[in-house]
Amino acid sequence: MTPEHASELTAKVCSLAPVVPVLVVDDARIAADLARALITGGLPALEVTLRTPAALDVIREMATVEGGVVGAGTLLTEADVEAAKEAGATFGVAPGATDRLLDACEANDLPLLPGAATATEAMRLLERGYSTQKFFPAEANGGAPALKAIGAPIPQVRFCPTGGVSLGNARDYLSLPNTLCVGGSWVAPKDKVASGDWDAITALAAEAAALPR
Ligand code: 3PG
Q: For each of the chain's 213 residues, which pLDDT tens digit applies?
């Protein structure tokens, strides 16, 4: 897959809703319920981070839930890319970008949302053909004002800012012309996931899905 095609596909994923939930899930047995709760609330694009031993099984379970688009986050290596693809992920997300990771995603036909934190990183990715990128870690990098400033000279790159984004600051990003959506974990808080409070998670998802952009 070409980087240009990958960016077209990830831009489509990012346009499904204002927020992509970033999920760290320890138990695959609750994965389908969690996915259903978020999708019901209006957030169909889900990023499952490869940060728990259960993550690949979580992707497998979530991929069976109707109406969802399930991707793998925290892709760091070629092995991660292959495993994510095999588990049923239809897109990938990475905190940054290396040539080896980009090569692996292109070779495995996994559309990647690669991470950039600076103008140079965004330019390097754009040079390779990636016009859809993740701005990470968004708040620590200066937040919406920093992303707005990057957008002035490089308006052709569109971003999904992630890292420290919450209901309180999401609007600041979503009002920028170079922001397609935001990523965040606040819609699936650990305590509510642990207690299986799916109605509360659906309510958080609905609140996020109603954010203007
Ligand atoms: C992460 O690295 O887990 C994501 O960027 C999500 O960050 P958040 O927990 O600050 O939303």
A: 999 999 999 999 999 999 999 999 999 999 999 999 999 999 999 999 999 999 999 999 999 999 999 999 999 999 999 999 999 999 999 999 999 999 999 999 999 999 999 999 999 999 999 999 999 999 999 999 999 999 999 999 999 999 999 999 999 999 999 999 999 999 999 999 999 999 999 999 999 999 998
Question: Tokens at residue 182, please?
Answer: 């935001």
Q: How far apart are CA 181 and CA 139, in angstroms?
A: 15
Q: Whose CA is nearest to atom 4 of ligand 1?
A: 163
pTM over 0.90: yes
Question: Measured from the CB, is residue 163 less than 6 Å from ligand 1?
Answer: yes
Residue nearest to atom 9 of ligand 1 (CA): 185
Q: How far is the CA of 88 from the centre of ligand 1 (A)?
A: 22
47 is catalytic: yes
CA 162 – ligand 1 centroid, Å: 6
Note if 134 is an active site residue: yes
Alpha carbons 182 and 135: distance in angstroms, whole number: 9
Question: Angle at the Cα of 32 (from 28 to 1), degrees rounded to 5?
Answer: 85
